[in-house]
Design brief:
- The chain is α/β, with parallel strands linked by helices.
- It has one domain: 3-Layer(aba) Sandwich (Rossmann fold).
- It is built from five helices and eleven strands, in the order H-H-E-H-E-E-E-E-E-E-E-H-E-E-E-H.
- The longest helix has 21 residues.
- The protein is globular, with a radius of gyration of 16 Å.
């Protein structure tokens, strides 16, 4: 593609295609794939050396991989989960998950925790960060929903960690690893991809500390 405008337009069209594809999934397919994704995610955390003390995650809506069962699956393996809070200017803050009763709808109508807030730098203490995506390339470059929240957060972690941020993982449905995604120069790959068919490690760093 010739310029940034072309790539952004291509991303917009791809987001619409992928979003519609998720909406078209049947309840049975969603349940089956959500259950598999949640199971593999819990297995990933169990396979790390020792139970992760802290992870960062998010609460999927219906039609996002893991669905309503993901958070509980994560909480069985990680005692501390930081969840995002959407702020103005595309900036994320984070707060600890203290149970469903301590959640409320946030700026984007997504449930958010109501406790003490932390800046993104707090995620340097995480053993793993689960990042939402609509799809990734085979190399792990993700296509998000276009708000840029996670792009900013991950770029900040890359900078302040000196190029050694926590491991990142995305959760996807079948068919969402694609080699036709438009990619910009600043787009960075994740370390692990989890789908209903299994766990894909994209580098040795991601495998480090895993017991299988």
């Amino acid at each position: 593609m010739d310029n940034k405008a072309d790539i952004r337009e291509a991303k917009k069209k791809m987001r619409a295609l992928l979003t519609q594809s998720r909406k078209d999934m049947s309840d049975g397919d969603l349940h089956r794939e959500d259950s598999a994704v949640a199971s593999y995610t819990a297995s990933l955390l169990r396979a790390r050396s020792g139970t992760p003390a802290t992870i960062a995650a998010y609460i999927p809506r219906r039609g996002e991989p893991g669905g309503g069962i993901l958070l509980n699956a994560l909480h069985t393996q990680a005692p501390t989960i930081l969840l995002p809070i959407s702020g103005p200017g595309g900036i994320l803050e984070w707060s600890s998950y203290k149970g469903d009763s301590q959640l409320r709808p946030g700026r984007l109508s997504i449930s958010e925790p109501t406790g003490e807030r932390f800046p993104t730098a707090e995620l340097l203490n995480c053993d793993m960060i689960f990042v939402p995506a609509l799809a990734v390339t085979p190399e792990g470059v993700r296509l998000g929903k276009g708000g840029g929240y996670y792009d900013r957060a991950l770029a900040e972690l890359e900078e302040i960690s000196g190029g050694n941020p926590p491991i990142t993982a995305v959760l996807l449905y079948n068919g969402e690893i694609r080699d036709d995604l438009p990619v910009e120069e600043h787009d960075k790959p994740v370390d692990i991809i989890i789908t209903p068919t299994g766990i894909r490690y994209l580098n040795d760093r991601a495998r480090l500390g895993t017991t299988y």
